[in-house]
Amino acid sequence: MRITKRAAMFCLCLLLVVMMGPQKARADWFDPLTIHFLDVGQADCILIKAPNGQTMLIDGGDEHDADEIISYLKKEGISHLDIVVASHPHHDHIGSLDDVIRAFPVSVLYMPNLPYDTKYYHDLFRVINEKQIPVDRAKAGVNFKMGFSVKVEMLAPKGSYYKHINDYSVVIKIKHGKKNFLLMADAGAEEEKEILSRGGVKADVIKIGHHGANTGSSMEFLKKVKAKTAVISVGRNNPYQFPSKEVMYRLNNRKMTVYRTDQLGTVIATSNGKKIMFKTNVLH
Ligand SMILES: [Zn+2]
Description:
There is one protein chain. The protein is of the alpha/beta class. It is built from 9 helices and 15 strands. It has helices at 5-24, 66-75, 91-94, 97-103, 119-131, 189-198, 219-225, 245-253, 261-264, and strands at residues 33-37, 46-49, 55-58, 81-85, 106-111, 135-137, 143-146, 150-156, 171-176, 179-183, 205-207, 229-232, 257-260, 266-271, 276-282. The chain has an 8-stranded mixed sheet, with no helix packed on it. A 7-stranded mixed sheet has the order 7-8-9-10-11-12-13. The protein binds zinc ion. The site of zinc ion has 7 residues, from helix 3.
């Protein structure tokens, strides 16, 4: 049987549509990517909305943040979370994640390989098991696309043992066109060194590690990242006095623009692949 060129092309197109699914096949070249750094006080919660409609949630605030996060996501039109990342098992990152993933269908959840014997961790796993959410190990080298234009890459953790729990943090780089975001979770100095040895850290925007604590954001690291803009997710009048004077000094020294959730509320970065715009004091 002779297959004509046209028939071959038709089959190829059909295969592509079937492989990518109707949502992913939506052309997304010109739609923006938005990254929402939710003001959840002394905790982390980041929502990523890709141009093709896919969604990713990194962390779910501390205990008692669930109502606020769920209502924010609903107002943003979220009905499904394609990817959820539990960056590491500390309560200010997974404290409300159990209730959040109970409220939305989740396609896959990534977390580092670190069983942790706390109420929050067990609560999270109870929902994962109830809803039979597939769990994948988060580690350096994991990468996937969100539509045509957004590339997501995990830069860490690389090893399987770290002295500090924070250094198990999933560090994620998001590339949209020419623009890059580096999301550090609570990574500290040891993890920064590991990431530097791997390379590819250059970014336009960095979500500063560990709420601006002086456990990380070393000058050496900031110099390699070369970001002009920093976002710090941190609570008003927090007892740890985050962000630290030392980290703020380094950011100012590098003349970086700093967006702090304790001063500016929820911060939204919108990228068209060439430029990033920021919106603050977002009330929902
Ligand atoms: Zn934290």
